[in-house]
From TrEMBL:
Residue intervals of the Methyltransferase type domain: 6-61
Lineage of the species this protein comes from: Eukaryota, Fungi, Fungi incertae sedis, Mucoromycota, Mucoromycotina
Name of the protein described by the UniProt record: S-adenosyl-L-methionine-dependent methyltransferase
UniProt similarity note: Belongs to the methyltransferase superfamily.
Organism per entry: Jimgerdemannia flammicorona
InterPro entries (alphabetical): Diverse_substrate_MTase (IPR051052), Methyltransf_11 (IPR013216), SAM-dependent_MTases_sf (IPR029063)
Keywords, sorted A to Z: Methyltransferase, Transferase
Listed Pfam families: Methyltransf_11
Single GO term (MF): S-adenosylmethionine-dependent methyltransferase activity
Length: 122
């Protein structure tokens, strides 16, 4: 997946566990998680996010379910304009919007779930 990312000199892509992010404290401007948050160990992830985000940094968590950005209709509209193109399969989109839910982790599921974070190289 990272090999498909647009390469730019001011962006560094890294793959890491959501619960053990390899960044110095207060180093990251934005963390995003798309359709993966339900797999994370939430207390550990939030601790890491708080640790690595710069003051006034942004944590954006989104998925296939209906999302509303609190007290900001304009931002919600922009999110939907962008996100509907990313969902892909129209059946998936319609299912997600109609149910307003995302799948929960299965007890039978094994594997490592990773998150990707973009940073500017120092």
């Amino acid at each position: 997946m990272l090999s498909n990312a647009v390469q730019k000199p001011n962006i560094d892509y890294q793959e890491a566990s959501a619960e053990r992010l390899p960044f110095a404290d207060s180093r990251v401007d934005v963390i995003t998680s798309g359709q993966a948050f339900h797999w994370f160990d939430h207390p550990k992830f939030f601790g890491e996010a708080k640790r690595i985000l710069k003051p006034r940094g942004t944590l954006a968590i989104f998925g296939y379910s209906v999302s509303i950005i609190k007290d900001n209709k304009e931002a919600t509209d922009i999110f939907y304009e962008y996100a509907t193109g990313l969902i892909g399969n129209p059946v998936t989109r319609s299912l997600a919007i109609s149910t307003g839910t995302s799948p929960s982790p299965s007890r039978k599921c094994t594997g490592t779930f990773r998150t990707r974070v973009m940073t500017r190289p120092t």
